[in-house]
Amino acid sequence: MPALNVEFSERELEDLRQIAKERGTSMKALVREAAAADIARHRALREGAEAFRHFFAAHAEEFAEAFPEDEPPAGGEAS
Questions:
Q1: From CA 24, how far away is CA 11, in angstroms rounded?
Q2: C-alpha to C-alpha distances, 10 to 3, 22, 28, 60, 62, nearest whole angstrom
Q3: What's the mean per-residue pLDDT of the chain?
Q4: pTM of model > 0.70
Q5: 49-59 pLDDT, tens per residue?
Q6: What tens digit of pLDDT does each residue of 16-40 get?
Q7: Alpha helices in the chain (DSSP H)
Q8: What is the Cα–Cα distance from 25 to 76, expressed in whole angstroms?
Q9: Beta strands, E only, the chain
Q10: Rounded Cα distance, 30 and 73, in Å
Q11: Residues 6+ away with beta carbon under 8 Å from 71
Q12: What's the burial of 63, exposed, middle or buried (CB within 10 Å: 0-12/13-18/19+)?
């Protein structure tokens, strides 16, 4: 399995040791879980943004009618 070496400050390392101890897990498992959670959060945000873009594109005319003051001026130049 691929591996990654990560450097931490003494303070960060001590904090990680303490958190792992409190949770009854290893430091390796703690860091892996944190990275996996961040990856999942990143994917969810990316997927949510994509869903919003599709929704907005599908309803662009409705948004333009509801919020005409937010539409760019005719000619396509923003002020």
A1: 20
A2: 22, 18, 16, 52, 55
A3: 93
A4: no
A5: 999 999 999 99
A6: 999 999 999 999 999 999 999 999 9
A7: 10-23, 27-58, 60-66
A8: 57
A9: none
A10: 52
A11: 64
A12: middle
